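Example record

The entry below shows one chain as it appears in the dataset: sequence first, then structure tokens.
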Amino acid sequence: MSKSPILRVAIDTPLARLFDYAAPAGPPPGSLVPGVRVRVPFGPRKVVGVLIEVSDQSELPPNKLRRALSILDTQPVLDAELLELLRWAWRYYRHPPGEVLAAALPASLRKGGDALATVTTWHVTPAGRATNLTAMARRAPKQAAVLATLCRTDGATDEVLSRHEGSWRAAAKALLDKGLAEKRQSLSAGVAPPADITPGPQLNAAQRDAVTAIDAAAGRFESLLLHGITGSGKTEVYLHAIESVIARGEQALVLVPEIGLTPQTIRRFSNRLGVPLAVLHSGLAAGKRLSAWRQARSGECPVVVGTRSAVFAALKNPGIIVVDEEHDASFKQHEGFRYSARDLAVVRARKLGIPVVLGSATPSLESLENARRERYRLLPLPQRPGAAKPPSVRLVDTRGEPGESGISGNLLRAMQRHLTAGGQVLLFLNRRGFAPAWFCTECGWSAQCMRCDARMTYHRQRDLLRCHHCSSERPPENTCPDCSNPLIPVGQGTERIEEHLADRFPEVPVIRIDRDSTRQRGELDRLLSRVRSGDPCILVGTQMLTKGHHFPGVTLVGVLNADQGLFGTDFRANERLAQMIVQVSGRAGRAERAGEVLIQTSCPEHPLLTRLLEDGYTGFAGEALDERRASHWPPYTSLALLRANAMDNDAPFAYLGAALRAGEPLAADGVELLGPASSVMQRRAGRYRAQLLVQSPTRSALHRFLDRWAPLLPDLAGARKVRWSLDVDPQDLQ
């Protein structure tokens, strides 16, 4: 009797290993293929895993080997290419395989749902269309009514027939038996293309050169960095390149950093390309996400647009990957499986042998260094198309100028001037709520979060104090608990700015866009539609407004507090501030009317601000890269960060100390372990946090070290007393 194959299965569990099972009894021929889902016993439960490989041996003795219950798929839900990408990801990011694979599958598939489920549609046949409905109505009125509905529609679903005909199934079955109707099975429709395709503007020379370079990379791997100033028409380059991909019968995967950008991206791509689009992001209901996954996998949708997790989208015939706003921190997952979607997009394109386009007005320093070393091909877009010109930018020194609610007199006068001329004004403040402090002016007491080392923010519309780190809330105290004096809100948040401007400019709508004002589904798109109307208005918001939005009516941008990021402790703080200033400034003057940007600061001599104004982002980036090289920070070194947290302060340090002692004998080739040290915010959500930094001169040396060190971490002394995580290529050291 032949020996039963051993199935090595990835299961969604925090254990960093695969699990061995005997093959189920009598599996269908050819079903034991890596990438299919397997239902297996796991402890007392029955769970769904993914088959990774088939072996003829196991480390477990035969009497300990449990048998898989069933194979759920006739073909892999994760094809060989995607499975190889996921293997690479769990090895590179040192994360449990089952949790990595779970990130690539919709929730219903992780629970065993049908990967190939189809939608039934009813259609009239030629014989049915030739039938005399009047005569049929006399002898079979219900059949005639159903047939009439089918004649009016190009395929009716069960839902449509139920809505129009009520009880219809018996009549439809009779029509089916007579050959007057037929049933078809298909995947549910994607985002329907518009009836009319809107032609795009004519490209300028730089845009044409970029499209030519991308088209020339078809069928082979190349990383192309599209560095265009804000408003230079990067999206038009994407669209022209994707048109060529669609013409070749291939698919395009487009990654955007925020859910809020997907509606405008879908609208613009759909209007231009005239093909169905699949949309993948975390805000979708489970059914819609599964439907989009199927449409991408089948090739039914030539274009797939999504946020971070869409990098794992199943694709039938991929031809290009585009990462818009490639610098954005949202492409890095900061909890659980800590991957970078931008970096995985490059890895996936390499494995597929297709081009990847990384676009940004403010590329990350890592990407610019890759372009310097000719690992990426730089495609510059140095000017805005047509008559649009970059805005004029100047600093407003707020020292000695009280202003009104954080808005200087200079900025208020400029706002009045632009609004009177029919323009729109955008004010940027990266601080939501009414005020960042609930404060006693007599003794200096301020409301602190009970669970974090942070102040509570006052939200006036809901009259509560809220911690923006752990989301805890409480009513505001009326008097100071230390000296009994009245407490007041101190500082400015977007709510306060909105309220002040509504009083200051009563004739102009004030539209606030932040996480609080856009909680309801569809609210962000509704607010942005008001802005796109072009009528004069004042737009107030946080960094949600800095990411890729096109506001042709905005002629003035005011940055209310540029000082927030000037003195950050993280080595990326200056880079992020520069990117934010450039991105929000780029919302001004994107159409025919000239744009103006005023940046309020109490530090107008700060070298970051002066360099940005004198030499733009490129000049800042060159200097910042020189500083990174001198101080041995990425991209000139590689990092991994071991974090630990617990309910008491000692446990994280005890565990990280054990990790340090285990790692020091393994460190070689310049690898250093730095710490342990408290996190910048030591206590968050009631837990004390600390970290241990691993710094290496090369990525290869770092991973040689991690190969030996990472397997030891789960079993170190104190590991069970903390929550710990290993972050490879961390984007912040907070």
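Notes for this example: The chain is about 30% helix and 20% strand. The mean pLDDT is 90.
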